[in-house]
Write a structure and sequence with these properties.
By secondary structure, this protein is mainly alpha-helical. Helices cover 63% and strands 0% of the residues.
Length: 76
């Protein structure tokens, strides 16, 4: 009977220690996630840059598309 009591007490202490260690690690991961989300979330302030409106008549040529994909500046 002493063996069973020791097993139950040891199991309970191990569970409590593991749960606390797991909670600490969870808090670290959650803090990291919150920082990453805050960094990725757009600011509340709306920004507008003139000239970047949607233009339904814009039709780039294949050369312009290829230059854009290569990162080259557009030709004027």
């Amino acid at each position: 009977m002493r063996f069973v009591a020791g097993l139950v007490v040891g199991g309970a202490l191990g569970y409590l220690a593991g749960a606390q260690a797991g909670r600490d690690r969870y808090e670290q991961i959650e803090a990291l996630r919150r920082r990453a989300v805050d960094r990725l979330r757009p600011s509340e302030e709306a920004t507008f840059e003139p000239g970047l409106e949607f233009n339904p008549d814009f039709s780039p040529t294949a050369e312009e598309i290829a230059a854009d994909l290569r990162g080259e500046a557009p030709s004027a």
